[in-house]
Amino acid sequence: MEQLDVIEKVTEPRQWVSSMVAVWKPEKQKIRICMDPKDLNNAIEREHYPMRTIEEVMARMPGAKVFSTLDAQCGYWQVKLDKESSALCTFNTPFGRYAYKRLPFGINTAGEIFQRLMTEMFEDMEGVEVIVDDILVWGTNEEQHNQRLERVLNRVRENNIKLKPEKCTFGAQEVKYMGHILTADGLKPDPKKVEAVNKMQKPTNKAELQTYLGMITYLGKFLPQLSTVTAPLRMLLEKTTEWIWMEEHDRSFEKLQEMVTEAPVLRYYDASKPVKLSVDASSCGIGAVLFQDECCPIAYASKAFTDTQKRYAQIEKELAAIMFGCEKFYQYLFGRTFEVETDHKPLEVIMKKPLAETPLRLQKMLLRLQKYNMTVKYKKGKELYVADALSRNFLKETDENENNDDVQVCAVMCLPIAPERLQEIRTETEKDPTLTAVKQFILQGWTNKSDTPDEAKQYWDYKSEMTIEDGLIFKGNKLVIPTTLRKMMLKKIHSSHQGIEKTKRFARDILFWPGMQAQITDRFQNAQYATHTRGRTERNP
């Protein structure tokens, strides 16, 4: 990064110094260095540069027939910072302090700054629209389009803007832009917006049908003749009715699918109105829906978990749902404030913490979410009708190439514990009845404290920090030690002869079990008492 002129080393005092976050990228065999600007973000005065709506863009494109789209690569790093801004973007590393010379990832106003600069760069050109790093070039015919495209590419070259070739489209009569499809005949919605609903599988039992009808009823105020269409399906839910799916149920289901994915249910996005993202994660998939006007859906999305993601702790699955929703609906959410609804209450706390204080398993996802200006709010699962239904009846496609193990590798590799000892801890963790119960709560979600078994209740207060990595349990970045190995660990800790405060600090940084600090203190005091007593005994005749 220093060689690329993105950062520079600094030695003079700086008023603002952020922490560094390192994320291992195994697919590239590289470490990604970022700053954690959460405190800085809270102090930044945002300029709230407006984003254009699809209606505004379309109004400026009369007679458009030919289109090209360009995507800027590492766009932020192409924006130079002045000295004052660079000083604010200083961060600590093990090798000293560095400051960004280019716009860093994670600054909450970065998208607005980049949008303004990109708009100013092309504002004197006809037939060009820019939304953040997506450039649209259009023409009423091929000749006009090509002339405009040539001017845009020259401007891109003059400003040293690098493009992603795989994300560029040239001279097409139909392109995706801002969640819609622009065509020579006008605007049409992107079928991807409703694919999650259109491809929902038919219910196979009463429980699945109950979940599906819960979603339909939630959207019911927009659906004409809803009770008439759902009548055959509701009959199946009666206690005295045997579950037999017939042609009339097929017709009812297909009609409902059609009704919830067409107007007046599915609305166009309005940038002047508040927006809300509702997400949910089941054991096997994710559901997300974007709302405006309280419960008017803008778009639906769902995704099956990969085999790796199915082994996530519940808090990781719920955070993955937020990340999926934000990135799926990026064009609607980036650069504006919005609310996220989740039924996982610990995420309200996690999202307010600095990155350095969050579990390593969550840091990569939290880092990707820093560019969004969101507020996470808890909502009971039974009230997340649509997201819950989508998460349980998800699109079957998964991205098996998506690598989700990088933070896990970091967490285990960074522990100053021998591999043989780690394997012993892993084995004893499997045998420990208390930690077995804790594992189940981590993977499936915690109950209320009053309903939690006594053996696991001592971990309840730390539930938002508990994760599982490679068969080991972590509280934040600290390894949880099973009961059978705690005496041995106390002996090892005490044998370091560093003094009680240094020993407690060392143990606190890498290990955890309830009451550990008090047990370390007791062991030191008992050892000191034994030494003192032995000394007096030896002096007696």
TrEMBL record:
Pfam families for the chain: Integrase_H2C2, RT_RNaseH_2, RVT_1
Enzyme Commission number(s) from the entry: 3.1.26.4
Domain Reverse transcriptase: residue ranges: 4-182
Regions that span the bilayer: none
The organism's place on the tree of life at top rank: Eukaryota
Gene Ontology MF annotations: RNA-DNA hybrid ribonuclease activity
Enzyme class at the top of the EC tree: hydrolase
Family statement drawn from the similarity comment of this UniProt entry: Belongs to the beta type-B retroviral polymerase family. HERV class-II K(HML-2) pol subfamily.
Protein name: Gypsy retrotransposon integrase-like protein 1
